[in-house]
């Protein structure tokens, strides 16, 4: 199971940032980033909000950072509580990940060299 540290490392690597660069962006030390990524320490809510803002272009949520499960709260509602308006944007916009698994795949895909991306797309039949 992916941990917060695993998800943070993946996000950091999508930008090709070192731990030091991410620490600079968040106003913490490289050692703090290392402790988060290895699971020795967990960041507080304020820091999670800063991470969410820093990676806003990747549509991550606090739920994704916290437990990796629910990316969009409306999709977690029972079918009786969902509305067309609350669910439709997530199913029709191809630019937005629809689950934490889909986001994880996208983030990992972005870290691959261009040739490997093309090979993977070919393998998947795209």
UniProtKB/TrEMBL annotation:
<keyword id="KW-0238">DNA-binding</keyword>
<dbReference type="InterPro" id="IPR010982">
    <property type="entry name" value="Lambda_DNA-bd_dom_sf"/>
</dbReference>
<dbReference type="Pfam" id="PF01381">
    <property type="entry name" value="HTH_3"/>
</dbReference>
<dbReference type="GO" id="GO:0003677">
    <property type="term" value="F:DNA binding"/>
</dbReference>
<protein>
    <submittedName>
        <fullName>DNA-binding XRE family transcriptional regulator</fullName>
    </submittedName>
</protein>
<feature type="domain" description="HTH cro/C1-type">
    <location>
        <begin position="8"/>
        <end position="65"/>
    </location>
</feature>
<dbReference type="InterPro" id="IPR001387">
    <property type="entry name" value="Cro/C1-type_HTH"/>
</dbReference>
